[in-house]
Structures are given as structure tokens and as C-alpha cells.
Write a structure and sequence with these properties.
Length: 186
């Protein structure tokens, strides 16, 4: 009997996360990012992450607006309302969450405490077959308008196993249109 092993977020995440306080200046955060060779930093003042600052945030929210980086705090420009994930979540679910929300970084939180970060690069390194989900989403990101409130995502149908560009969540499973119809007939 062959046992199927599932790759989890814990298997792919980076557990050594560099964090910063929301009160430090953008200039100081940029120095830390440069020194450590990072593209982002998690912002927290307690155990739970409260924001994320990326190179892109600094360019769009500070540099492009000609704001002096030493005179604005991270808390003023960070991305808030983070989507986080539990380390026990399956990696394919994390990839779908990233694709659905057009994000490349997920703070990994267990029992309210930051335990790591999962990036799209981590996903691709550990599970190359999930790369397709992230690549297709990047192509579709600005070109498709969905009519339903829940955006379909690319991936392997959890019933038939076929790779489809559009899956919808039905009864907690991501399924293709054909399997969705079969489920609705039952």
C-alpha cells in the first residue's frame, strides 16, 4: 500500500524571518534590506505580524512620491491586513492562496505567533509542479475580469487531477467545470 505524502508550508517556508518595528524610518528599513539582501521585511511590534514592507512599496509609496525616506515611518507605508497561513497547510493550497490574492509572500503564523515566511520562490523551489499555478496567475493577473465574487484559480482539479487554468472551490475542494457539474448533479 503506497502512502501519499503531502508537502506542507512548513516544508518550504523560511523560518529565519527578519522583522522590524513599524516606528523605524523607511530609510533605515531600506538599509536593513540592502545589508541582508532581502526584498521584504515583516513588520511587527509583538508576536503577530502587523504588516509587510517590500522594495516595491518603498518605490511606489515613497520614492515615486518624492517623500524623504528618513522622514516617514514603515508603519505609514507598510502593507496592512496581511493574509497569513498556518505551517501545516498543504503547499498546493498556499500556492492557490497566493495566486488568488496576487501576492508573493505569506507570513506563516502558528497560534498567533510568526514562525516563518513563505515566498513564491520557496514554493517553486520545493514543488516545481506548482510553478504553473503561479505563472498562469501572473499572466492573467490584469487581463481577466471575473463575474463571480470568488476568483477561480489555476491548478490540478482535486477530483479528476487534470490541470486547468480555472478551478472553482466547491465544498472545500478546487474543481474543474466538468467535475463541478458532476458534483452539482449528485
Amino acid at each position: 500500500m503506497e502512502m501519499e505524502t503531502k508537502v506542507t508550508v512548513h516544508d518550504a517556508m523560511t523560518s529565519s524571518v527578519v522583522t522590524i518595528d513599524p516606528k523605524i524610518s523607511v530609510a533605515e528599513a531600506a538599509k536593513i534590506m540592502t545589508k541582508m539582501g532581502l526584498g521584504s521585511l515583516i513588520v511587527k511590534s509583538n508576536a503577530k505580524p502587523e504588516g509587510l514592507i517590500t522594495e516595491s512599496d518603498i518605490l511606489r509609496k515613497v520614492v515615486a512620491k518624492d517623500i524623504l525616506a528618513s522622514e516617514i515611518t514603515i508603519g505609514e507605508v507598510m502593507t496592512k491586513n496581511l493574509i497569513s497561513i498556518d505551517p501545516g497547510t498543504e503547499l498546493n493550497e498556499a500556492a492557490r492562496l497566493m495566486a488568488k490574492n496576487s501576492i508573493r509572500r505569506l507570513p506563516v503564523v502558528k497560534n498567533g505567533k510568526l514562525v516563518g515566511i513563505l515566498t513564491s520562490t520557496d514554493v517553486m523551489s520545493v514543488s516545481p509542479e506548482l510553478t504553473e499555478i503561479l505563472v498562469i496567475n501572473a499572466r492573467l493577473e490584469n487581463t481577466v475580469t471575473y463575474s463571480s465574487s470568488e476568483n477561480p484559480v489555476p491548478g490540478a482539479c482535486e477530483i479528476c487531477g487534470n490541470f486547468m487554468e480555472y478551478l472553482e472551490q466547491v465544498d472545500g475542494k478546487y474543481v474543474c467545470d466538468e467535475c463541478k457539474e458532476d458534483l452539482e448533479e449528485e
